[in-house]
């Protein structure tokens, strides 16, 4: 018979004691989600008074600039610190060399200046990658075998990042996974006087199958076809490699590093935060959003509770902030619960 460590008839430690009442549960709570943790990814399209639903992402819409401004007003009122913009580019804006990516009067650039003009306090994050602008849907410029050319792509990414900074972007976020792009973008920003433009590096971006609904949302799924991104995004089997990627991006001048996707990669978030101790972000991607929504629609999961639990899990794993399509919903839940 095993003897109780308490050496008496009663357990010395009852873990349930602290769980018994709300006051003591609150006192020992280790992590909290606040609106300060939320970054809202948003899809933008050309035109006026346009809003389109995304079929595989219930509740997510693509907005034209005028409606984006209206939406931004609500986000500012909710206290959301920053949004991340993703453009829907029509066929005329796509090419082999993705020149539209650095058009100073392009869709993203116009959205950024309109937003900064109207809501200077709202942080604006832009996606630095070529996939919305290439005819083949890859994140870079390809050779005749379809291989994405690293250094040529980086040259174009630098032009794109500079055009975003010039338009007023607060944060540029290279999501392409080319080697050396953070260093080149940082040097170019400094040289052009954009000393305080922050870089949020998609450092550990995995070649995940959870991005499907996003590709529907930006309309690049058809262009990519059966193509894949294994030659530049990371193998889901790897973890040390994520630390290597994040460390390199920090050395090259990233201010913030990111792990993506989120929930299936919480172990990576924890390792990155523990070992590098830098501002660490996580992206709860479109597939995670879609599967949650599908279960909510079926009544299989409780919407509010599961949204909040899924986001709190990122905080517990060590994330400083979360890119999530639930950002607005979560901000509303947080506001209403504070009342
Ligand atoms: N560069 C941004 C993404 O690829 C987002 C993916 C997703 O939400 O599935
Ligand atoms: Mg890298």
UniProtKB/TrEMBL annotation:
Q: In which pathway does it act?
A: Porphyrin-containing compound metabolism; protoporphyrin-IX biosynthesis; coproporphyrinogen-III from 5-aminolevulinate: step 1/4
Q: What is this protein called?
A: Delta-aminolevulinic acid dehydratase
> EC?
4.2.1.24
Q: Where is the active site?
A: 205, 260
Q: Which residues bind Mg(2+)?
A: 245
Molecular function in Gene Ontology: porphobilinogen synthase activity; zinc ion binding
Among PROSITE patterns, the record links this protein to: D_ALA_DEHYDRATASE (PS00169)
Cite a single GO BP annotation. Answer: protoporphyrinogen IX biosynthetic process
Its top-level enzyme class, in one word, is lyase
A single GO CC term for this protein reads: cytosol
Q: Which family, according to the similarity comment?
A: Belongs to the ALAD family.
Keywords tagged on the record:
Heme biosynthesis, Lyase, Magnesium, Metal-binding, Porphyrin biosynthesis
Q: Which InterPro entries match?
A: ALAD, ALAD_AS, Aldolase_TIM
Organism field: Litorivivens lipolytica
The record's note on quaternary structure and interaction partners says: Homooctamer.
Catalytic reaction annotation: 2 5-aminolevulinate = porphobilinogen + 2 H2O + H(+)
- List the lineage, top down: Bacteria, Pseudomonadati, Pseudomonadota, Gammaproteobacteria, Litorivivens
């Amino acid at each position: 018979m095993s003897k109780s460590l308490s050496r008496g008839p009663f357990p010395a430690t009852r873990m349930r004691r602290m769980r018994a009442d709300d006051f003591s549960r609150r006192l020992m709570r280790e992590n909290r989600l606040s609106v300060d943790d939320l970054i809202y990814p948003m899809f933008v399209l050309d035109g006026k008074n346009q809003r389109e639903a995304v079929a595989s992402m219930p509740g997510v819409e693509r907005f034209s600039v005028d409606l984006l401004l209206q939406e931004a007003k609500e986000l500012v009122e909710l206290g959301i610190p920053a949004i991340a913009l993703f453009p829907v580019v029509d066929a005329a804006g796509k090419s082999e060399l993705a020149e539209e990516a650095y058009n100073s009067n392009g869709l993203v650039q116009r959205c950024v200046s309109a937003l900064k003009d109207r809501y200077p306090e709202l942080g604006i994050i832009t996606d630095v990658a070529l996939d919305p602008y290439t005819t083949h849907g890859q994140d870079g410029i390809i050779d005749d075998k379809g291989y994405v050319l690293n250094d040529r792509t980086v040259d174009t990414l630098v032009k794109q990042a500079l055009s975003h900074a010039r338009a007023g972007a607060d944060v540029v976020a290279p999501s392409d996974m080319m080697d050396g792009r953070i260093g080149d973008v940082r040097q170019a920003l400094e040289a052009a006087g954009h000393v305080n433009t922050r870089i949020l590096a998609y450092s550990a971006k995995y070649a995940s199958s959870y991005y499907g609904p996003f590709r529907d949302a930006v309309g690049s799924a058809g262009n990519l076809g059966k193509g894949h991104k294994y030659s530049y995004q990371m193998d889901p089997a790897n973890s040390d490699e994520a630390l290597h990627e994040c460390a390199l991006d920090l050395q090259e001048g990233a201010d913030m590093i990111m792990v993506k996707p989120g929930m299936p990669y919480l172990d990576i978030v924890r390792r990155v935060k523990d070992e590098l101790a830098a501002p660490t972000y996580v992206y709860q991607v479109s597939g995670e959003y879609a599967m949650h929504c599908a279960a909510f629609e079926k009544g299989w999961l409780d919407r509010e509770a599961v949204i909040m639990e899924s986001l709190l899990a990122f905080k517990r794993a060590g994330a400083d902030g979360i890119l999530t399509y639930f950002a607005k919903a979560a901000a509303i839940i947080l506001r209403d619960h504070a009342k």
